[in-house]
């Protein structure tokens, strides 16, 4: 390991197999002590790619790809960690949800029910909804990741 700086390489994968490739990279590098991988990243926004941080050369990463099913090729060149840091910052779960949006509750006791968003608490990543088909409007607070947007509303009337 002559180089001291780690580089980030993009590995092209079979569609929808990014997690499998990442898991296999971890297994293979545990067995192959001569291939060094410091971190593996599977960004949600980057479909079909796995990012690998390593001090090794691109040739070494290409050897790694040959050992892993569903890993297709290494994108030529490397990048610095600073260029992929934005993938490390989590997006708030409630981003993209506005008041008046119709959502479906996908977890909890009201699973499957449709509801209208009444209030959004970005700090706690919670939203307050009222069930769409209930006789009495009862506000229910649910976590932002337990709803799925059904219909976006520009007007919260």
Automatic annotation (TrEMBL):
This is Transcription elongation factor Spt5. Residues 5-91 form the NusG-like N-terminal domain. Stimulates transcription elongation. Gene3D superfamilies: 2.30.30.30, NusG, N-terminal domain. Keywords: Elongation factor, Protein biosynthesis, Transcription, Transcription regulation. The gene is spt5. Heterodimer composed of Spt4 and Spt5. Interacts with RNA polymerase (RNAP). SMART domains: KOW, NGN. NCBIfam families: KOW_elon_Spt5. It comes from Methanoculleus nereidis. InterPro entries: KOW (IPR005824), NGN-domain (IPR005100), NGN-like_dom (IPR006645), NGN_dom_sf (IPR036735), Rib_uL2_dom2 (IPR014722), Spt5_arc (IPR011590), Translation_prot_SH3-like_sf (IPR008991).
């Amino acid at each position: 390991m002559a180089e001291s700086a780690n580089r980030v390489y993009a590995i092209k994968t079979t569609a929808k197999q990014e997690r499998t490739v990442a898991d296999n990279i971890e297994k293979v590098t545990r067995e192959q002590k001569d291939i060094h991988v410091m971190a593996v990243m599977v960004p949600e926004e980057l479909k079909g790619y796995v990012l690998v941080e390593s001090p090794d050369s691109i040739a070494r990463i290409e050897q790694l790809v040959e050992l892993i099913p569903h890993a297709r090729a290494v994108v030529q060149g490397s990048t610095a960690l600073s260029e992929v840091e934005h993938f490390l910052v989590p997006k708030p779960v409630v981003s993209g949800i506005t008041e008046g949006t119709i959502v479906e509750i996908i977890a909890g006791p009201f699973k499957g029910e449709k509801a209208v968003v009444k209030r959004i608490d970005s700090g706690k990543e919670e939203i307050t909804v009222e069930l769409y088909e209930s006789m009495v409007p009862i506000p229910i607070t649910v976590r932002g990741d337990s709803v799925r947007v059904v219909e976006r509303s520009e007007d919260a009337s």
